[in-house]
Design goal:
eight-stranded mixed beta sheet; about 300 residues; globular; Rossmann fold; single chain; about 15% strand; 9 helices; alpha/beta; about 35% helix
Length: about 300
């Protein structure tokens, strides 16, 4: 990515920065406009479905070659976003891996605060198992708050004795609701999307009166991570959430989890969604696909 490309992307993202002080309904409308304009994702077929009692979006590659299912959790700060707002990124992951994905529309805050989204995510994972999906051929993935939801669902599944998936993919995951990472301040000037204040508003919607210092919302700083499946974390160096990934990776490795942390320089939050513009995004998705294939059993 050239310096000119970086500057233009930064300018566009700052212009599209969401004002999280707006009512949630307005946030949802604006975010949907930002993320669903343009033609539908190429190389895949989209189909409305249900999973675990919630609406879901199935995304199947036109050229499938990998026997696996990706359970994908969209981002949006727990307040906005849908499977369709993340469809471009999910479709890109599907194409790179060569396996279909299913993305549930988990309940959003403030109408449905913590732990509603986690309950829905766990129900989706349980439904895949009950429908006959082999756990060793399931990949759980998510971006931003969806990355945090991925970890929360895996922790719940582990604690309830469910078989865990082959691996997990976390794209710019939100893993610390205490906002105690140094990057929250150090990266504020270079992050075009977020700062401590607008993230705090979203957290207030989601947490309501819940304590942020607990494993299901802040696994980067608290809780037992032992037993989680192999996990790939990808994050940009220009993110206030950078330390969410770096500290989680350190704690997970110390707990014996196979973990890979990739920090891509000079890219923003969920940079993988910019795969049409950034070589770094394409390369990251290639590495994510390789990680998945390495952790699937041979036929």
């Amino acid at each position: 990515m050239t310096q000119q490309q970086r500057a233009e992307i930064d300018r566009l993202m700052r212009a599209a920065r969401l004002d999280t002080s707006l009512p949630p309904e307005e946030l949802r409308e604006i975010f949907e406009i930002y993320t669903t304009v343009g033609p539908p994702p190429a190389g895949v077929t989209l189909k409305d479905s249900t999973l675990g009692g919630r609406p879901a979006l199935e995304i199947a590659p036109d050229e499938a070659g990998v026997d696996a299912t990706i359970l994908y959790f969209h981002g949006g700060g727990w307040v906005y976003g849908t499977p369709r707002t993340a469809a471009t990124l999910t479709a890109a992951l599907v194409r790179h891996v060569g396996a279909p994905a299913v993305a549930p529309a988990y309940r959003l805050a403030p109408e449905h605060p913590f732990p509603a989204a986690i309950e829905d995510g766990l129900a989706a994972y349980r439904a895949l198992l009950e429908d006959g999906a082999a756990p060793e051929r399931i990949v759980v993935a998510g971006d931003s708050s969806g990355g945090g939801l991925t970890v929360a669902v895996l922790l719940r599944a582990r604690d309830e004795g469910l078989p865990l998936p082959a691996c997990a993919l976390l794209f710019s995951a939100g893993l610390d609701a205490t906002r105690s990472g140094a990057s929250m301040d150090e990266k504020e000037s270079v992050d075009p999307l977020f700062d401590r204040e607008n993230l705090a508003r979203l957290s207030a919607h989601y947490l309501a009166d819940a304590d942020p210092r607990q494993p299901l919302v802040s696994p980067a700083v608290v809780g037992d991570l032992a037993g989680l499946p192999p996990t790939l974390l990808q994050v940009g160096s220009n993110e206030v959430l950078l330390d969410d990934s770096t500290r989680f990776a350190t704690r997970a490795a110390a707990a014996g989890v196979e973990v890979v942390l990739e920090v891509t320089p000079d890219v923003p939050h969920v940079f993988q969604s910019l795969h049409a513009y950034l070589d770094e995004a394409v390369d990251a998705l290639d590495r994510a696909a390789d990680f998945v294939r390495r952790h699937l059993p041979e036929k």
